[in-house]
Amino acid sequence: MDLDLRLVRYFTVVAECGNFGRAATRLHLAQPSLSRQIQRLEAQLGVRLFDRSPQGSSLTDAGQAFLPGARILLQEAEQAAHTARAAVQPRTITVGCAEGLVITACVQELRRRHPDGQFRTRHLDWRDAHALAEGRVDALVAYRPLPLPTAGFRVTKLHEESRVLVTSASHHLANEKTVSLRALSDEELVACASTPVLWGTPKPVGDRPAPPPPAIDDSYEDKLELIATGHCVAIFPAGDRRAAVREDIALVPVIDIDPCELVLVTRADDPNPLVGSLEDVARTLLGTASRRENDELPVN
């Protein structure tokens, strides 16, 4: 006899709950659907497993006899699956992410779906432009423009993201609900070649002369200091919240600038099955989380 283990599991839950309604809730099923599944199992076995009444459900003699073996059957099936998975070399994937991105929820869901997999994350900066091509990561979550040629890679768009003005808390635009590019006409904004960030050219403030422009090896924190002291402004993706933790810096949504794209980049011929799972998870969770961050962006 070919028993459907899913039906056997449904039977054990109904037996434990003593009520089809409570069992349906626990199994996330509609009660009529659960009743039909139990009837299918009864038809396969050729016996009635439950006595049903307005007060609930109780096991028949046949149901009481079947319950211990049903539990053993489910336990042995789970053990067999675990043994089979343990015999295979654990699969691994290393996910790189650009500065300012948080992919914790994405990786946690991958671990839930693939408990025997090994997952690593690596936060990358501009010096790691070739990490994917060199095999140091198996996938890259980043904003366009990408820091690498895309030939031989699969680029999956996750979502579009708005942008914010990053300025000192004392800037005359810091308390605006939104800002347009016209209001920034006196700023000389320079686009980065490999990120969606625009940095303003430093200007003098009061009797303080303009500092030199940021050098290529200056850290992100060094550049934020120029903003906090009022010498320059920048435009960031709304999902990059690193500057939001500083009280001396304000974030203001920019209403008339093109959004930036968040993408997932993988090698086009990668046979790793976890790569496909990552794409599904990133579309569902990472994209949703980033859109929620946009919606909840505080207005300064």
From TrEMBL:
This is LysR substrate-binding domain-containing protein. Belongs to the LysR transcriptional regulatory family. It comes from the Bacteria. It comes from Kitasatospora cystarginea. Residues 3-60 form the HTH lysR-type domain. Keywords: DNA-binding, Transcription, Transcription regulation. InterPro entries: LysR_HTH_N, LysR_subst-bd, WH-like_DNA-bd_sf, WH_DNA-bd_sf. It holds the Pfam family HTH_1.
